[in-house]
Design a protein that fits this description.
Elements (H helix, E strand, L loop, with lengths): L20 E3 L20 E3 L19 E3 L9 H11 L10 E5 L8 E5 H6 L11
Parallel strand pairs: 1-2, 2-3
Antiparallel strand pairs: 4-5
Length: about 130
């Protein structure tokens, strides 16, 4: 589905309550918002290869069985840490291992270093050295 958008409005999926499989891969999504929470029957969500930088547990439907996240420039921050810990404590399996992007040079540079989020989750601090509590 080529949306050519970056965000969803809260009522974007109104009337699609029976939807089970949603593929939003290879778009320019920067956020998912809370509109997916209303898709109670959604089992498969593909949001790989977008521009998502972080996710929150309020953005993922409770009954989701497969979640595809690879190919997004995720930031290793506290919100992402809490999100991954939430996923690890539920039956919402992430199918592919997402990678977080850490800037290792000044902001104007495009050079990045990537880290598997599984490694980032076990770290007690964020890349900037601040503690997540």
């Amino acid at each position: 589905m080529d949306l050519s958008l970056q965000v969803f409005e809260d009522d974007e999926f109104e009337g699609l309550k029976m939807l089970q499989n949603l593929t939003l891969s290879r778009n320019r999504l920067t956020t998912l918002g809370s509109s997916l929470q209303k898709l109670f029957n959604l089992e498969i969500l593909r949001v790989d290869s977008n521009r998502l930088r972080t996710l929150g547990k309020e953005q993922i439907p409770a009954n989701l069985q497969n979640l595809y996240l690879a190919g997004n420039p995720f930031h290793c921050d506290c919100q992402m840490l809490f999100f991954l810990n939430h996923l690890n404590s539920t039956d919402n399996p992430v199918v592919d291992v997402p990678v977080c992007t850490l800037q290792t040079t000044p902001l104007r540079s495009r050079l990045h270093r990537t880290v598997h989020l599984g490694v980032a989750v076990s770290a007690p601090t964020t890349p900037r050295g601040t503690s997540c509590r």
